Structures are given as C-alpha cells and as structure tokens.
Amino acid sequence: MTEHICDYCGESFATANELGGHVTAVHRRDQLVTDADVILDDIQRVADKLGKSPTAKEMSEHVEYS
C-alpha cells in the first residue's frame, strides 16, 4: 500500500484523495473563495462585460473565482 505524505506537515494518509482533502482544508484554506460579496462582484463584473446577465456557461468562461 502506498503511503501519501503531506509536504506541508508530514502527516500521512491512506489515499491520494484523503491527502488532497487535507491539503485543501488545512494548508490552502485561505485560497478558497467563500465570501459571497467577492463571488457576487465577479458575477457583476461578467455581466458588465457582456452587457447582460451571464448564463452558467458564460460564467464558467469568464469567472475569476469558482
């Protein structure tokens, strides 16, 4: 069985998915966008650029945060 070790803290995990979840939740938490105002500002920016309310497809093409 392959051991998956966190490069940041050395903790080991049984699977790559567990390691990825750990890294995202613990070490890269500040990189996750959770502020609704930031997301709404991005939607407004795309709407202003397109001159209309964007569709989901247009948002995925132009959005800065996901």
User: What portion of residues belong to β-strands?
Assistant: 5-15%
* C-alpha geometry: elongated
Helix and strand element order = EEHHH
**How many domains comprise the coordinates?**
2
| Mean pLDDT over all positions | 86
Helicity range? 40-55%
Q: Residue ranges: pLDDT <50 for 5 or more in a row?
A: none
Give the number of DSSP strands. 2
Distance between the termini: 34 Å
SS field, number of helical segments: 3
Q: What is the SS-derived class?
A: mainly alpha
Strand order of the largest sheet: 1-2
User: What's the Cα radius of gyration?
Assistant: 18 Å
Task: Outline the biggest β-sheet.
Answer: 2 strands, antiparallel
Characterise this structure:
The protein is mainly alpha-helical. The chain has 2 domains: 1-32, 2-Layer Sandwich (Double Stranded RNA Binding Domain), CATH 3.30.160; 33-66, no CATH class. 52% of the residues lie in helices and 6% in strands. Strands 1-2 form a two-stranded antiparallel ribbon. Strand 1 and strand 2 (12-13) form a beta hairpin. The longest helix has 15 residues, at 36-50. It is elongated and about 55 Å long. The chain starts with a strand and ends with a helix. The model has no long low-confidence stretch (mean pLDDT 86).
